[in-house]
Here is the input.
Amino acid sequence: MNYPNKKENSQSSFINYSKRGMTLESDINASNKYYLDNDIALIYKKPTPIKVVKVDYNKRINTRITEAYYEVPSTTDYNGIYKGKYIDFEAKETKSKTSFTLNNIHKHQIVHLKKVLEHGGISFLIIRFTTIGKTFLIFTKDFISYINNNDRKSIPLTYIEEKGYLLKDGYNPIIDYIKILDNYIGDEL
Amino acid sequence: MNYPNKKENSQSSFINYSKRGMTLESDINASNKYYLDNDIALIYKKPTPIKVVKVDYNKRINTRITEAYYEVPSTTDYNGIYKGKYIDFEAKETKSKTSFTLNNIHKHQIVHLKKVLEHGGISFLIIRFTTIGKTFLIFTKDFISYINNNDRKSIPLTYIEEKGYLLKDGYNPIIDYIKILDNYIGDEL
Here is the structure.
């Protein structure tokens, strides 16, 4: 493996929760809206799962939830359909310049992405390295292959550059990840 | 059309919000768990969309949401993958003995189910008539066809019996709707 030896772990494990995923999320949402409006694909972000504990039914117009908690999602954030194919992915940002820490993803989300593959769907991660300003798509088979063959708790950027696909910023759609899937579907046929 | 002339509208438009969907929802969730555990299909219920307004970050362990509101869902409640195919459906209960009132479904949900069909996926409704204890699956093309050709704001049970598929209660899975899709996928091939 050709990845830097610099110790970046302490830096890469720092996560700014207040901003994490915001920009990448809004870019993906805007791209999904473009795909929807142009009848290219139907991809939606799933709502964040929230456990509602107390509700105030006295509000006549709109029921007010007065106590609730965030829950761990069972699956991934995004799924949908493209050319009849089931699409499923998770999107994450990292501040690291050298690797993507696997702690960023829940283990059962990785299991889910693998299951999608086994059931004949297309699943992947979209990872944005915010510090270097690069966004990649990496298919499940490729990052699972890395996890299975390495003890590291992070995937080096060099591996992602080698196996993944760089998603260049565009105008509309902002990140055209569907274009990558065309090649992938083409490979399968 | 061979549907009863009895005026059932006032009755069918009465909805018990506190119980609506609970039983059918739990039956479908249990069936989905069966499909998941047996590697038959991956179908999940999407979380209910909630708009969070106020959050108490002082709670160290688990962020408490102190003000939030239910939002109208953009899509349907359930989606996933079966034999590589994208699956998408909405499940509804009605107390009516004679018809399913279209007010039960948001118009943009019907548009979504139709779009899924156009993109090569499989979409349908699961409707339970709680008073007569019968549950049906009706594919999007069939209920859209009814809507396009009729002015009524409800689909008669007789039409659903004719075009839909009766889902008999089973033990495991409780409602085996995936079996119906087998025939449908078979028809397409």
Q: What stands out?
A: The longest helix of chain B spans residues 22-37. Residues 1-21 of chain B have pLDDT under 50 and may be disordered. Residues 19-46+73-188 of chain B form a domain with the Trna Endonuclease; Chain: A, domain 1 fold (CATH 3.40.1350.10).
